Amino acid sequence: MMTVISLGGSLVAPDSLDEAFIKDFVSLIGDLLREDEERRFILVIGGGGPARAWQRAYRNICAAAVDEEADRIGIMATRLNAQLIKAALGEWCTQEVVIDPTQAGPLAGRVLVAAGWKPGFSSDYDAVLLAERFQADTVINLSNIAQVYTADPRLDPEAKPLEALSWADFRALVGDEWVPGKNVPFDPVASRHGAKIGLRVICAAGRDLPNLKKLLRGEPFTGTTIG
After folding, report:
1. Which of 36, 131, 200, 202 has its CA 20 to 30 A from that of 219?
2. Residue 119: CB atoms within 10 Å
3. In terms of Cα–Cα distance, which of 185, 172, 174 is closest to 146?
4. Number of neighbours of residue 33 by Cβ within 10 angstroms
């Protein structure tokens, strides 16, 4: 069984590195691998707070800042985070961190770790491309929100959580344009390609590890299914 997880940088490094979360997440992955020898994981790691901090600094320093350079800065943060996750996984991950999902080779170990690729989208899109390449039908998108809402609940007190929605409805919520550092449940570029290939995306709270365990075991869970 191949499971693709887009692990939001807001979990790995909300401001600075969250060592306790990383330790607990890696422990959960190890437990699931030991439970089922057929299970394989692809983990795509985001940039989080450090990415946004460096991007913000770039924009403050350069009056003529451009999105492509801001994206490149954010990508470097994803690669540092991914290298840490790879190292923490130890023997479970024997391959180098993937930075080009179109060139990812056969899976040699039990876990493959990937990071950002190039400007124009977030690491969510890399997760979609890897799911397509390795014939996985679902991407689990873990972030700091438990479900997708009808609107931003921080701005709209009437916003309601959704258990499921179509790609058309989700894309109407997030739009089609990518801006470096944009904070949406799932990248608009990734959403466009996910809809095209018929992928299913499940959004769930990454810090709720008991809920994540239920999701990965095929048990009832709290989250939002798109597609």
Report:
1. 131
2. 17
3. 185
4. 18
Strand partners, 35: none
Beta bridge partners of 161: 149
Name all contacts of 167-173 with Cβ < 8 Å and 24+ positions apart: 167/191, 167/194, 167/195, 167/226, 167/227, 168/195, 170/226, 171/195, 173/148
DSSP label of 178: -
Residue 34 has which token pair? Answer: 């030991």
Cβ pair 183, 200 in contact under 8 A = no
pLDDT in tens, 118-139: 998 889 999 999 999 999 999 9
**Residue 35 has which token pair?**
């439970």
Q: Are 43 and 5 in contact, with CB atoms under 8 Å apart?
A: yes
List Cα–Cα distances, 225 to 139, 200, 205, in angstroms.
10, 7, 13
Total-model pTM: 0.94
* Burial bucket for residue 29 (CB in 10 Å: 0-12, 13-18, 19+): buried
Lay out the sheet containing 40-45: strands in order across.
Answer: 111-114, 40-45, 2-7, 138-143, 200-205, 224-226, 164-165
Please identify which residue in the block is written with the tokens 């979990």. Answer: 11
- 4 in Cβ contact with 44 (< 8 Å): yes
Please give the mean pLDDT across all residues of the chain: 94
Place of tokens 């390795």: 134
Q: What is the DSSP letter of 96?
A: P
Alpha-carbon distance 75 to 206, whole Å?
A: 21
Which among 216, 219, 221 has a CA at the least distance from the CA of 31? 216
Residue 182 has pLDDT above 70, yes or no: no
